[in-house]
Amino acid sequence: MGSCRGFLLFNEQPHFLVIWNPLTGSSKTISYSHIVSRIKIPLVINPDHKVPYGFGFDASRDDYLVVLSWPDNYNQHHLDCFSLRTNSWINLDAALPKSMGTWKQQFYGLFLHGAIHWLCYSSQDYIDDAILIFDLKERSFSKISMPKQLVGCSPINLTILGGCLALYWYHDDITEIWVMKEYKVPSSWILICEIPCGNYLPLCISNGSNIIALNFELGYVNLRFTKYNVSEKLLNYSPFSLSHYHYTYGSYCVHTDSLLPFPGDVKDKDKKKKTDH
Fold first, then answer.
1. Higher pLDDT among residues 6 and 103, named by residue
2. What secondary structure does DSSP assign to 109-154, as a single string?
């Protein structure tokens, strides 16, 4: 469901989340059953279901946070947050701005610059398509405008490339990729490339000009890696593919290994050593 500073977030049925560091083997299981009991509609978190969530790091508190959105009886979304440092859920009492009442098809939030980002659109005929931001330090919302050229376009997705917010969408077997060069500066959106390939899911940029991506055929039957060189406009496919892959069976994210411990683990070990002595 996401990755942050070496930790991976997973969903485990029926109502559990698992945070795991694959390099150290440390893990933590979190129950969200209390949120499920709070609402009347079914709430299941996985890539198939429309439950917005996010995973990020609050540097001001040295804390990892899992943010989960849930709708009340008036279909107004609220946020609850799990703190790894306190090992507890926090009701943030932060409701989604009413003018931004609907998520697009992408429900996982992306962590960047101390905030979680979702792609949303206005309830008023797409006139206010934007990226919704939840600042983990301030616990407050703000938003960033999309390029005017993409307002109302579909399907459109949000990703992070080279440490910048990026948008991509498919049309006529072409994938357009737009990048915001300066964070929170809408005028800095630029179209960096038009890749002659549909169903192209950019993951990261390597060596400054190579966009590494996943490409799937219609129906998600085959999935393979691709590399597109922006400066040379050259597209290469990996010689192998994952056959009979289906998106509903899993998801993917960019992950970087880390030896970082869970918050509090170091202090707990120090206390144990003092007690042993």
1. 6
2. -EEETTEEEEEEE-TTTTTT-EEEEEETTTTEEEEEEPPGGGTT-S
